[in-house]
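User: My collaborator sent over this chain with a note saying "see what the structure looks like." That's all I know about it. Can you take a look?
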Amino acid sequence: MSVETDVWGPADPEQQRNRRNRWLLGLVPLALIIAALVALLTVGGDTLPERLGPPVEEVAIERTVLRPGEIDLTVRNTGPDAMSIAQAFVNDAYVDYTTTGNEINPKRAQTFTLNYPWQQDSPYLVTLVSATGVTIEHEIAAAVETPKADGSFYGLMILLGVYVGVIPVLLGMLFLPFLAHVREHWIRFFLGITIGLLGFLAVDAYLEGTEIGESSGGAFGGVELLFLGAAVAYFALVALDRYIGNRRDKAEQAGASGMRLALMVAIGIGLHNLGEGLAIGSAYAIGELALGAFLVFGFALHNTTEGLAIVAPLSKGGRRPALIKLIGLGLIAGAPAILGAFVGASAFNAELATLLLGVGIGAIIQVIVQLVPSIKDRAGRALYPLSIGGLLAGVAIMYLTSLITTA
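Assistant: Without extra context I'll predict from the sequence alone. Here is the result:
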């Protein structure tokens, strides 16, 4: 058995020179690229002729806050040139406004407070006019006072996290005695229902996220943030699942207790619920209350099955853990939903809300990938009459739920 001297000891001088040469082959062009970009940024503009024509004015209204007698608009300049707001109109009527500054630099935002006695549930068209005459229109479909982000609002987010994460997981852990007497094929049917629920939920969240992303200003990205959030969440959860899976396999080989295995499963599920809480909190923060209720129901229903996954290692025999330990496992798996809802409730702009909804979609997809092997029959098929029936039943349940929650 030989030992690599270039890893554990002094390398050969010739190998060291070759290694330095390989690094230089990559560092030299990188340094030239950086130098060229810096030169272009600092002196390159002086070599170009002055741009002709009017300034490019592109703005987006990121957030609207309604208070009695006032309409707050957060306006972000998404164009390359600075611009100024000169006038404001509501339903073609001139209104006074206050602001921290009329001029808005590129990528920056300013808040304009319009003094207007709006009426509850009435539609309004707000028009801002720039100094060069460019108009920016923003429609308020139905005026409703914006809920204050105070202690009661965040208390609601904490309550939602409990509803979505803690309670369903703990309830799901209570189904173990029942499933111990249910035939295996019916368990696969119930898991098929769960996959159908989540699949419909992912599609609905995608459509909602796409709509929100398209309505954003685009200063930091639009719909692509939905895919970015989903990709980051999915691959992060896959990496964590692989890590915990390897730890679990090694623990089983070492004869670890079922309690330790259940703890590893609970930690992995907890990260799933963090993404779910983010999606719910962001939906409520941007005023999409129906979507929030939809997400709450779907995730809560799904998380009851997560409780079963936690207690499964504990059913392999031996002495069952104390009740306080079971509650602790449920909190480890479910409590991250509280944190997620709390953080998601702070997403008051469309772009961050789109990103957080993407995180929720990524979590859903990763959970589905984990559940699919559990519905396979003895022939290794994931799709057969019973599982297809479960999938369709899950989609039907979620469709009917969407009609109820949006009514």
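A starting point for your reply to your collaborator: Residues 184-215 form the longest helix (32 residues).
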